[in-house]
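User: For a benchmark we're assembling, each entry needs the component sequences followed by a predicted structure for the full assembly. Here are entry 17's components. Please fill in the structure.
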Amino acid sequence: MNVEQVLFWCAVGLYGVSASAYVFGFIAENEKLLLGGLAAAALGFAAHLVSIGARWAASTTNPFISISESLALGTFMSMAIFLLVQATSRKVRPLGVFVLPVVFILLGWAGTLRVASDSQLAPALQSPWLWVHIVGASIGFSAVLIAAGLGLMFLLKDGRSGRIYDRLPSTTDLDRLGYRFVAGGFLMYGLMIVSGALWADQAKGSYWNWDPVEVWSLVSWLIYGIYLHLRITMGWRGRRLAWYALVAVFVMIVTYWGIPFSAETFHKGFRVEHEWQPPVDGIR
Amino acid sequence: MTPLAAPTSPSPPGRTPRGPWRRTFSVISSPRLAIALLVAVLACSVAGVTVFRGERAWVVIFSTLWFNGLLVLLALSSGLTFLVRVWGRKLTLAWVGMVVFHVSFLGLLGGVVYNSFFSFKAVLRLTEGETLPNGDPASYDTIEAGRFFDFKRLRGETTLVRMHRNYKVEGQDKRSAYEIAVGEGAARTVSTIYVTQNLDLDGVRYLVSKEGYSVGIILRDRWGKELYAAMVPLQSLPEGAGNLLYTSGSIHGPSSFPFPPPPAPADLLLQVTYVPDQGKDRAGKVELATWPVSALEGSPAAVQAADPHGGAASPPPAHTGTVPVGGTFEAGNRRLEVSEVRYWVGIAVRHDPGLTLILTSLWAGLAGMAMTFAGRIWQDTKRGKRGSSGREPDAPAPREIT
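Assistant: Structure for entry 17:
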């Protein structure tokens, strides 16, 4: 097992410790456990960062191509934003109750799918659009994951009082913050779809192919579009949108990493293939 | 005394009687309709990746008139709904962003509709050295053309000069690249295209699509006189474990074919399979099998030869053998010479006059989202500085637009 793998599994382990500390800390209303959860999360993030860096340094291509690499990037970005939010406000510490278990499970799953880096990037991936696409995708996912965490905090706080609940932000603030993260995620997700369309047009001559991953991405984007319309046009607030954000993030996870497993798509394994193919007919 | 007629109830102040057009406009520009359409498109998309999948989803949902009509209605409804409600409002960044975002749907719709009328999408299959006229529909394997597309737009001809394997650009392996010459006479443009580099000539784009092998076969009589010669493009059929079988036939499996092919009279039925040399490009072995033409006359199924997937029963070949590239094969009173191996390529030829509007609309939509996001954060921050309204989140919120 090389250094990169050791660090990767250290990150998984530390996120697991952090997730447990957050969940039990919240149940026991123990601030120290929550603080311990944050410390473990920060250490896990450091290990995660170095493991990605080590993988990148050791390979000739960028380490964000395979499904496990994509999961590692999505969770890395989520942790970066989570820690940034934690640094901004101590009030949202229990956000880890939702974010860390999800990150722990996704990164652990990534660990079971790990393969060696490709020596060469597939030709279709040799495009600057790759960077725009994956940055949009990973930040978009992170934003809606945080929004779902805020939704859970809202549901936990709503109508309750007590030592830990009183220290949480007001439901109004949680609601507004959740909305901001959804709006930001919607924008970044839009960036992912638009860059994907431009990239597909460059590589395949067609900006939209109704490929399963494209359709699922559209579904996720529309789900968050409906969230925004329910809030802005229909005036929804509070519990309903908190539940909505929680359910929607699972659709997002299925779209990102579930569909390439279960459907025939040119995104399969995040390798946009351009291989020898049979012609339409036989003989000229 | 004539009783007085009951007075009719007066119209509400400021309202005029509504005609059918106004009512229709009112329905289309209703936010409830826009959200209902959004949910309907969402439901259809989910059905298209769960209940129906792949080609079936394309046939049953995504290519249908009703689904595309739904998309058109959604674009119209969301665009109009928004424009009607923001008309005359105070200009803010979020407001402008929302206008740009919703109008981009109309732009996208316009681009897609315009493109559907004037676009051209086809696959031009060429073997190295071959030239085909661009304006002749017979040159293409598949064609999807808009109702008003004019074939005169496809001027000149296209030649595949060479297919390059493991083509490198700045150290990056592009795997395959096609060196093509397109145009008329001396004014032909020679370009090398690969997966992220296409050729755009007068609004017609040439993109790489797929490749395969062509085997040169010369038919001779027993004295060596040449009777016919042709390049035979081979299928690349998956054999499992990432291997491919390069053989004559169709996408459904290997089979023989009349040689010479129609309209010339067939001399025999031939099946060609190429086994590439692992070390040297365009070298290797060629497996040949022949049947008498009478096998074709007996039953169409009889030409299905040596189907490894257990296809139609076929008579055993009259002659079989394996020769190296450059070798000669004796088939009764005929000789078959495998002269060379070349590559064939499928070049995707596209003309999308609505593409600029479509892609611009996508960018505009994204810019609109960014402006709205920034504008709302700014508004929220300003409100926060002024103090919270004190309204609880579950209390009914005003229906705002900006």
